């Protein structure tokens, strides 16, 4: 695994504090040598774009067309997306007692080595390279390559295979001997460059020195790979833990919000129930008061009308209530007709007033109606008319107090209408409130 951000020191202040970057001396970052920095995806487009276009043009089946070659190689188990080389001179003990200027000289030599490496191996395209002089220990170079191999019968004409790229370059050895031969050649190049600086390679052991060097080099690369891998794992773990904590905090916040909303909804329901109860109690009190006041009006009317008018009342209400058997001859009398019409008008005004309970001054209007009755002047009646009225009265008396019962029916109907209208208004208000949502 490689870390281009680490190699290029493209790190934030927080990232410099992470464990995998604590070996970097920030005061010496400016001494590093950055040779090349290209975007890997753009490099793939440049290196394999023409070959990919030729390949796709030959395909007759859509499922064989490759849209994104970078992603295609990334998922492949046989191709190499890229390779990283780490080349260092000496070890930590060698450099602990030397002056910083010595590191810079070797750093320049490593930069030259990388540039010449590209010339020697054009089929190993270097897209990123840096020489680090800001770490404790020996100076070293990181350079990443994309292998370019040819000679394929299937797929693209050019493909990223490190093994086949070495074969194209003449390294035909089998297995691990191919990589060994390649590394031996590069070690000789480094030895020659060191000799020019007056530095000799330290030999350890005898005939197996190359194998030992290869072994140490491989161990170094393995350790570097391990370090980078562990660093990536730590970063990934930290990110996952951070995301998990944020998610849990979000869940807890939502639960708290849910609890608050449930409490407010419950409070609103209690408030609505209380409002409804108070409204019903209020209207009940109003209607009861209406009944009491109306009884008073009826009593006032009965008490203040002349005694002789009871017969005329009976005739009017008998006609209004639809009783049969009333003597039409009596009703045809002009004087009595005037009385009947007058009472019918009074009753109609009463019904109109008490069917419209939204009129605030209903009682006042009712009182005015009864005042008209009080000042009404009844005509004189002869004995014959009075006798006929008495007969009608006897027929009506079979149903006690019809006038008051009629008014009570009016009040009951008004009460039902008032309750119905109150509920309708209340439900409309609640529906509107639900539509707009509770104010939380």
TrEMBL record:
Molecular-function GO terms, alphabetical: DNA binding
GO biological process, one term: DNA recombination
Keywords linked to the UniProt accession: Coiled coil
InterPro entries: Mob_Pre (IPR001668)
Keyword Secreted assigned: no
Residue numbers spanned by region Disordered: 421-440
Gene3D superfamilies attached to this UniProt entry: 3.30.930.30
Coiled-coil residue windows: 212-293
Keyword Coiled coil listed: yes
Family named by the database record: Belongs to the plasmid mobilization pre family.
Name of the molecule in the record: Plasmid recombination enzyme
Species of provenance: Streptococcus acidominimus
């Amino acid at each position: 695994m490689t870390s281009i951000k680490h190699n290029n020191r493209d790190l934030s202040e927080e990232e410099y504090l992470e464990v995998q970057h604590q070996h970097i001396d920030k005061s010496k970052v400016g001494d590093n040598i950055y040779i090349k920095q290209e975007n890997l995806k753009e490099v793939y487009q440049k290196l394999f774009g023409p070959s990919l276009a030729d390949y796709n043009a030959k395909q007759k089946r859509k499922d064989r067309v490759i849209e994104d070659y970078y992603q295609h190689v990334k998922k492949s188990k046989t191709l190499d997306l890229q390779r990283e080389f780490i080349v260092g001179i000496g070890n930590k003990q060698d450099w602990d007692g030397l002056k910083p200027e010595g590191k810079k000289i070797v750093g320049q030599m490593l930069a030259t080595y990388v540039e010449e490496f590209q010339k020697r191996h054009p089929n190993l395209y270097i897209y990123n390279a840096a020489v680090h002089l800001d770490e404790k220990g020996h100076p070293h170079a990181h350079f990443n390559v994309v292998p370019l191999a040819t000679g394929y019968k299937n797929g693209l004409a050019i493909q990223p295979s490190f093994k086949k790229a070495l074969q194209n370059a003449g390294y035909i050895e089998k297995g691990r001997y191919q990589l060994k031969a390649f590394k031996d050649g590069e070690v000789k190049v480094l030895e020659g460059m060191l000799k020019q600086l007056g530095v000799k390679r330290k030999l350890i052991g005898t005939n197996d020195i190359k194998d030992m060097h290869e072994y140490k080099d491989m161990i170094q690369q393995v350790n570097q790979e391990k370090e980078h891998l562990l660093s990536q794992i730590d970063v990934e773990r930290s990110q996952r833990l951070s995301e998990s904590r944020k998610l849990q905090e979000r869940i807890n916040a939502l639960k708290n919000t849910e609890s608050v909303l449930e409490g407010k909804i419950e409070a609103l329901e209690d408030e609505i129930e209380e409002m409804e109860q108070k409204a019903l109690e209020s209207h009940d009190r109003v209607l009861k008061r209406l009944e009491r006041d109306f009884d008073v009006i009826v009593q006032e009317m009965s008490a203040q009308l002349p005694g002789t008018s009871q017969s005329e009342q009976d005739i009017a209400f008998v006609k209004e209530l639809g009783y049969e058997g009333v003597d039409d001859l009596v009703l045809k009398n002009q004087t009595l007709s005037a009385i009947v019409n007058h009472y019918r008008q009074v009753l109609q005004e009463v019904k109109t007033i008490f069917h419209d309970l939204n009129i605030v001054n209903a009682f006042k209007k009712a009182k005015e109606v009864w005042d008209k009755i009080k000042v009404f002047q009844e005509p004189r009646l002869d004995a014959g008319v009075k006798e006929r009225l008495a007969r009608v009265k006897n027929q009506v008396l079979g149903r006690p107090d019809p006038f008051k019962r009629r008014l009570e029916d009016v009040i009951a109907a008004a009460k039902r209408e008032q309750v119905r209208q109150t509920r309708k208004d209340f439900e409309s208000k609640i529906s509107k409130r639900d539509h707009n949502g509770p104010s939380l």
